[in-house]
Specification:
Elements lengths: L2 H7 L2 E3 L8 H10 L5 E7 H5 L16 E6 L3 H14 L4 E5 L4 H5 L10 H14 L4 E6 L7 H15 L3 E5 L10 H4 L7 H10 L4 E5 L5 H9 L4 E4 L1 H5 L1 H5 L2 H4 L10 H17 L4 H5 L12 H11 L7 H15 L1
Parallel strand pairs: 1-8, 2-3, 3-4, 4-5, 5-6, 6-7, 7-8
Helix pairs in contact: 2-14, 4-6, 6-7, 14-17, 16-17
Length: 332
């Protein structure tokens, strides 16, 4: 995917979320929005380089524009992993400098890298030199005792010096000591003004903001204040049609009519059928579809049928038909 296409898609992106944004989820999101930029779950460089887990790079070409997020701290290893991702066909390689989980900390990568901007500079330079695809960074505004007003510009200086031109900033500090990963998504206060100030200070950087965005109204307001992109996480997963259904029209000025939620279900059928034929289970796909009708009549029956029947052995497309009875009856 050309650089300008990736940059345009980054006007609205869906955050990489562990255990959520797998390839089934991404295809669902792509069927709702043709334009938003999608991200994989974080894939660790050691798993690819030392573990040979190349299956973690699998994706459907229909997911484009899609980016691979990598985790790690060794420049050579991350360079090799980035080259694998580029060879596989991803349109962007993203370095995770924001995840606060215990597992990430023990591996000395994720948010803890905010404390080592020189190392991140060397990592990004190595990743850029190793392959032709754009390298981006996702970070926090700081960690633990850091002063974000000092730590974030120092970090952005380092990645820009390495050749990075696009950064996504989760506008919260990460507390690696004292807060759980879940608490780190909500407890540290948001600091949108700091991220806006960074856009003024680094005008040549394409800056996207992440954290606390719950609606397209919020996304449009942040874009109007001068930011280059908005990344939405849990709201897009829990209410995918609400966020993505009108995104192409409102964020990307596209005139095509959006698919209705039940049209999205119909569009998923061939993919689900192929997944089942290959030995997959229905719930592996439909667990990502539970929020498709959120806030609409029939949503409760939709969720209940998929939750209770979708996980049963041998569950097939007939479960999808029963789940749809609620929304379709309500719309009749």
């Amino acid at each position: 995917m050309p650089l300008n296409a990736a940059t345009e898609a980054a006007r609205l992106s869906i955050a990489p979320m562990m255990d959520w944004t797998d390839r089934h989820c991404r295809l669902l999101h792509r069927l709702i929005s043709r334009r938003a930029l999608l991200y994989t779950e974080m894939v660790t460089a050691p798993a690819l380089v030392r573990g040979g887990a190349r299956h973690l790079l699998e994706f459907d070409p229909a997911e484009h524009p899609v980016a691979l997020q990598l985790g790690g701290s060794d420049p050579g290893e991350l360079a090799e992993a980035a080259a694998m991702g580029a060879e596989r066909g991803y349109g962007e390689i993203n370095l995770n400098c924001g995840c606060p989980s215990d597992r990430v900390q023990s591996g000395c990568f994720g948010a803890v890298l905010m404390e080592s901007p020189d190392l991140v500079r060397r990592i990004c330079a190595a990743m850029i030199a190793a392959q032709p695809v754009e390298v981006t960074v996702k970070c926090r505004i700081g960690v633990d005792g850091q002063e974000p007003g000092e730590a974030l510009p120092r970090f952005l200086d380092a990645v820009q010096e390495a050749g990075v031109r696009r950064v996504i900033v989760h506008a919260r500090k990460a507390w690696l000591q004292g807060l759980s990963p879940k608490q780190n998504r909500d407890v540290p206060p948001l600091d949108y003004p700091l991220v806006l100030a960074m856009k003024a200070r680094f005008p040549d950087l394409h800056l996207s903001i992440n954290g606390g965005v719950e609606s397209l109204d919020q996304a449009e307001a942040l874009l109007a204040r001068g930011l280059d992109g908005v990344m939405i996480g849990r709201a897009a997963y829990q209410r995918p049609w609400d966020i993505l259904g009108r995104a192409d029209a409102r964020i990307f000025d596209e005139n095509s009519a959006p698919r209705r939620p039940d049209d999205v279900v119909d569009a998923m059928r061939p993919y689900i059928a192929a997944h089942l034929e290959a030995g997959g289970r229905l719930a592996q796909v439909t667990r990502h579809m539970l929020g498709l009708f959120a806030g609409r009549p029939g949503a409760r029956l939709w969720r209940r049928v998929l939750s209770e029947e979708g996980a049963r052995d041998g569950a097939g497309l007939e479960v999808l038909d029963r789940a749809l009875e609620g929304p379709r009856a309500a719309a009749a």
